[in-house]
Amino acid sequence: MAAYPADVPDISQDDFGPASKDGMRHKCGVFGVFGRDDAAVLTALGLHALQHRGQEAAGIVTFDDSKGGRFFSERHMGLVGDSFSEEQGAISRLPGRAAIGHNRYSTSGRVVLRNIQPIYADLAHGGFAIAHNGNLTNARAIHRELVDNGAIFQSTMDTEVVLQLIARSNRNRIEDRFIDALRQVDGGYAFVALTNGKLLGARDPWGLRPLVLGEIDGAPVLASETCALDAIGASFVRNIEAGEVVVITADGVESLTPFPSLHASPCVFEYVYFARPDSIMHGRSVYETRHRFGQVLSREHAVDADIVCPVPDGGNPAALGYAEASGIPFGFGIIRNHYVGRTFIQPTQTGRQRSISKKHAANKPLLDGKRVILVDDSIVRGNTSAKIIQMVRDAGAAEIHVRVASPPIKYPDFYGIDMPSKEELIASAMSIEQMTRYLRVDSLGFISLPGFYEALGAGPRNDAAPQFADHCFTGDYPTRLVDRDHDMARKEQQLSLLDD
User: Which residues have C-beta within 8 Å of that of residue 180, sequence separation ≥ 6?
Assistant: First the structure.
């Protein structure tokens, strides 16, 4: 599919593009199970375990071959437990022995029912439901071409682009039509899809977004993280490999490798922020990795202090690692209200600032008069950090030293991470010294990129073929960024017209 010219007006940017103020990225959770009478119940439990990956909406689609091969769908705003509890009755409306589910996290501020997944369509070869974690970096270009050729879209999700491409494929088997569609897209993705008697799973050729295969009493399970397998009592079988497509039927699991062999580069931000601490990512404990981040931080940025405090909850494991390595006592100097969502995702600056005051409270007796080391998992815009630092100072801290368990984030992500534009990233706009003054702290230290790779247990970074997608730190993007390049070209064109 060709990119459209720079003078064509943009379609809705709900999920497609990086042009908005807050980036409009989303990270989501997907789940699927095949061959269980309680498929809908297991999917709801799996989505509940993946709730951290999406808190705005949730959906489940089931296939029931006992009712003439019918699909059933329930999609709701809000948390999994609010929509799929026994009292709500949604589970009773989802019969069938196969199911897929999705948790949604968008940043556009326009979450509507039509943009809740899984999405479903009746195709020539039968029904097809699909759920997606990630972002397609050429979705808007494909969307424009499809619309120009008569396609009608019901949502503004890049996921529907894949559904449209499947519908247009002239291949016979549904898995081949699915692969045909995947060949035309770029970006990071983990898909689960449900058809008549088949559960499909797919992971992008770089392995940017996670997907694992599990098993419960012989029934195959697909999930974004291993914590979802644990939640339903399933055992971990293996990771879905980069570029792999799996076809699950009553005969078992078939593995297809339709894409050229590429250098797998899982997204490193799963270890920094996204994944639940009790998950295992590519053989690495997320908790233990974050703990090692703190240990390396202590070595690289030592400072005399009285207490090490995490910015909860993301900074907890790294703060423990820092405290243990440094011998400085650990304490919860900041208390988090777990009934408030992440400020990182708020669609407006005002909303973020209001959420900060609701989300965190200073533990004044622990901070008053102390030299405090605050350990956080990352700093993005810097707004949340500035508010928390002021809160700690107001609680009487004598000194504040901030330590960050990831390298400075200087570049936006285009593969499904909520991330503002490059201009809004504080580390892109300021030096360490400038950030120190802006945040009004006594010192500021980020883990180095070599130290980060050491904590990952990956050895030195190979510049020619990095083991991880670390583009947020380095600007080394593994794929084409068609839509981003279009935005830049159009912006340059507009500036050129102004100059003229």
Answer: 165, 166, 169, 171
CA gap 114, 410 in Å, rounded: 34
Q: Does the annotation count 472 as an active-site position?
A: no
* CATH at 64: 3.60.20.10
Peptide linkage before 478 cis (omega within 30 of 0) = no
Beta-strand pair 252-256/57-64: unpaired
Instruction: Provide the β-strand partners of residue 70.
Output: 64
* Three-class secondary structure of residue 361 per DSSP: strand
User: Is 97 strand, coil or helix?
Assistant: coil
- Residue of 28, 227, 267, 472 marked catalytic: 28
Q: In terms of domains, do 455 and 344 share one? A: yes
Q: How far apart are CA 179 and CA 258, in angstroms?
A: 7
**Residue range of the domain that includes 253:** 29-265
Using one digit for the tens of pLDDT, what is the confidence trace for 424-475? 999 999 999 999 999 999 999 999 999 999 999 988 898 878 899 999 999 9
Quote the tokens at residue 228.
Answer: 């979802």
Q: Verify that 207 and 78 share a domain, yes or no.
A: yes
pTM for this model (two decimals): 0.89
More confident residue, 361 or 342: 361
359 plus 459 within the same structural domain = yes
What is the greatest pairwise CA distance in the chain?
A: 72
In a domain, 479, yes or no: no
For every residue of 232-284, DSSP letters joined together read: HTPEEEEEPPTT-EEEEETTEEEEE--S-------BTHIIIIIS-TT-EETTE
Q: Of 286, 310, 301, 297, nearest to 452 (Cα)?
A: 297
313: cis peptide before it, omega within 30°? yes
Q: Is 365 exposed, middle or buried (0-12, 13-18, 19+ CB in 10 A)?
A: exposed
Residue 8 domain flag: no
For residue 114, the model assigns a pLDDT of 85
- 229 domain-assigned: yes
290: left (phi over 0), alpha (psi -120 to 50) or beta: alpha
Is 129 within 8 Å of 70 (Cβ atoms)?
no
Query: DSSP assignment of 384-439, as one string?
Result: HHHHHHHHHHHTT-SEEEEEESS----S---SS-----GGG-HHHHS-HHHHHHHH
Looking only at the bridges linking them, the beta strands covering 212-216 and 219-223 are: antiparallel
